[in-house]
């Protein structure tokens, strides 16, 4: 009868082992998106005070990054040095400040630097819904024809830039 006492422990050990096996052997997740290969949805948002505004229509003819961020978002602060580095290289980056006010968005950029060629506010999330954004930060690579070539949900890192962002920027428009 003493062996019956070991059954719960054995089940726990087997469960932990199976979980460890699944976590350690799974492939790296890929981020897919129904919008990749489609035109960036149109939106019209007000520019943040003191910044140039933009719309997808106004950016036709140049490839760029579209970054959804918020001053309230800790991962946005983590990725910010990567955005600053990309901007310093001359890569155009446009920002949508999601669920933000002029004061908060401008305070964030004053404190950390401004990598954006234009900043618009989306306090109600109108454009975010069209883009299918699940959380901030999210970054889209948009080609010169206004077509989404890549999307990254989460903070950009040097590794993500090398593996996802740069190849999509370099691919150019598909014709």
Give a written overview of the molecule:
It contains 5 helices and 5 strands; from the N terminus they run H-E-H-E-H-E-H-E-E-H. The chain is α/β, with parallel strands linked by helices. It has a single domain (31-171), classed as Glutaredoxin. A 5-stranded mixed beta sheet has the order 3-2-1-4-5. Strand 4 and strand 5 (148-153) form a beta hairpin. The chain is elongated and about 75 Å long. 33% of the residues are buried. Mean pLDDT is 88; it is low at 25-31.
Which characteristics define this entry?
alpha/beta, five-stranded mixed sheet, Glutaredoxin, 175 residues, 37% helix, single chain
If strands are numbered along the chain, what order do they take across the biggest sheet?
3-2-1-4-5
Radius of gyration: 21 Å
Number of domains: 1
Helix content: 25-40%
Straight-line distance between termini: 74 Å
Q: What is the CATH architecture assignment?
A: 3-Layer(aba) Sandwich
Stretches with pLDDT under 50, minimum 5 residues = 25-31
CATH-wise, what's the superfamily? Glutaredoxin
Dominant shape = elongated
Helix-strand pattern: HEHEHEHEEH
Helical/strand content category: alpha/beta
CATH fold assignment: Glutaredoxin
Summarize model confidence as the mean pLDDT: 88
Can you tell me the CATH class?
Alpha Beta
